[in-house]
């Protein structure tokens, strides 16, 4: 069972939609700042798959400290690396049927590439909060167990600027994010 802090309101489910210029936006990451940082990593294994010379998912959001498994389920070798902001690593060549793991121990955006297949790219965002979501193909987001209150939200999308603002979380109120 899960422990409940005495005096803490129960969290609620929050739904919303992400739009850019009026169109729904998949693969956008939305997260809420917590009053104090929460560094606990995600419990379950998180996978960034490699298949058909593409990463899946294209955008992955994780909590800081989360270990991500990068299996090679392709028919070819891959060499996965990230040398920009966020987590820097180079996993070296590894063949089909094998995996490597990376712990994303700092908040921020990591751009993930394969130096053999320049068309392969993925984004991993590590956030210091349990309240985050990646929008689905219809631009929908869902956050779970968020204590009601006012939060600073952040939103990021591939190729776009980061948005932030204030969001009031309460029952029945959607968290809609709009880029102009």
Termini Cα gap: 43 Å
Silhouette: globular
**What is the helix tally?**
0
Strand content: over 45%
The averaged pLDDT comes out at 88
Number of strands: 18
List the strand order in the largest sheet: 7-13-12-9-10
Radius of gyration: 17 Å
Helix content: under 10%
As residue ranges, the low-confidence spans are: 1-8
Largest sheet: 5 strands, mixed
Structural class: mainly beta
Please trace the helix and strand order, writing H or E for each element. EEEEEEEEEEEEEEEEEE
Topology:
Blueprint: E1 12-20, E2 23-24, E3 29-32, E4 46-47, E5 49-51, E6 54-56, E7 59-63, E8 66-71, E9 78-82, E10 89-94, E11 99-104, E12 108-114, E13 121-127, E14 132-134, E15 140-146, E16 149-156, E17 163-169, E18 177-179
Parallel strand pairs: 1-18, 4-8, 7-13
Antiparallel strand pairs: 1-2, 1-15, 3-14, 3-16, 5-6, 8-11, 9-10, 9-12, 12-13, 16-17
What's the short version?
With 180 residues, the chain is mostly beta strands. It has strands at 12-20, 23-24, 29-32, 46-47, 49-51, 54-56, 59-63, 66-71, 78-82, 89-94, 99-104, 108-114, 121-127, 132-134, 140-146, 149-156, 163-169, 177-179.
Key terms for this structure?
mainly beta
What does this structure look like?
- By secondary structure, the protein is mainly beta.
- Helices cover 0% and strands 52% of the residues.
- It has no helices and 18 strands.
- The strands form 5 sheets. It has a 5-stranded mixed β-sheet, with no helix packed on it.
- Strand 9 and strand 10 form a beta hairpin.
- The N and C termini lie far apart (43 Å).
- Mean pLDDT is 88; it is low at 1-8.
């Amino acid at each position: 069972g899960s422990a409940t802090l005495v005096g803490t309101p129960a969290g609620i489910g929050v739904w919303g939609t992400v739009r850019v210029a009026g169109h729904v936006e998949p693969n956008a990451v939305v997260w809420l700042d917590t009053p104090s940082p929460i560094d606990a990593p995600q419990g379950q294994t998180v996978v960034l798959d490699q298949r058909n010379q593409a990463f899946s998912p294209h955008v992955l959001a994780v909590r800081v400290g989360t270990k991500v498994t990068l299996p090679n389920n392709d028919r070819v070798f891959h060499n996965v690396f990230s040398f920009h902001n966020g987590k820097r690593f180079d996993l070296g060549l590894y063949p089909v049927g094998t995996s490597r793991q990376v712990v994303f121990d700092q908040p921020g955006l990591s751009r993930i590439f394969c130096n053999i297949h320049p068309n392969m790219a993925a984004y991993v965002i590590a956030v210091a909060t349990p309240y985050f979501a990646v929008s689905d193909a219809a631009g929908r987001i869902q956050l779970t167990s968020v204590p009601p209150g006012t939060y600073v939200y952040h939103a990021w999308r591939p190729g776009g600027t980061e948005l932030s603002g204030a969001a009031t979380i309460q029952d029945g109120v959607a968290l809609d994010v709009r880029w102009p």
